[in-house]
Task: structure prediction
Amino acid sequence: MELNAFKEMIWSLYPQGLAWSRERGILNGLNGSIAHELANVDARKERLISESDPRKTAELLTDWETDYGLPDACTPLAATFEGRRGALLSKICAHGAMTPAWYKKLANDLGYDVDVEEWRPFVCGLSQCGDQKYMLGNEDVRYVWSFRIYGERQTFFVAGTSRCGDPLGQWSDAAELICRITKLKPSHTKVFFYYEEAR
Result:
């Protein structure tokens, strides 16, 4: 509601008569102050609704991080506000199908360009010589997979979403990604990480 609507609402609660004049005076000033505070409370209520969505949170970001156990061993406190919100969203959405596509999306959400490859044993009649995705070995190679990480994660200051004090640019290695994947991978599998040039 607007400020004038609150003023009218307050005036409608008073009795009628000369003692309750709407002209300038102490009572009019008091009603203006009360209406101003009611308008502030109404605006805060609207902001609280927005804060209930972690994609839009600003004031309650610290509370959201506490609820999801951030920062943790894999996710140190980010230097930027958007980095903190991105880490929170990644943690909230980190429940999935555990497929290569899901792990790739997780890495992309963290800001990394990756390829995920599942290893398979060489099988006569099905595999071809020179195939890079196959490894010679026994059946246990089925439980091995790899991440190819292309370049470092780059984050930049973005007007409208970044905050005063955030760095203009930041480059970081994949330590957070490696920790998260190691914690989220199926326990019976082994994962290898390879660094490649940025593509």
Notes: The CA atoms of residues 22 and 151 lie 69 Å apart.
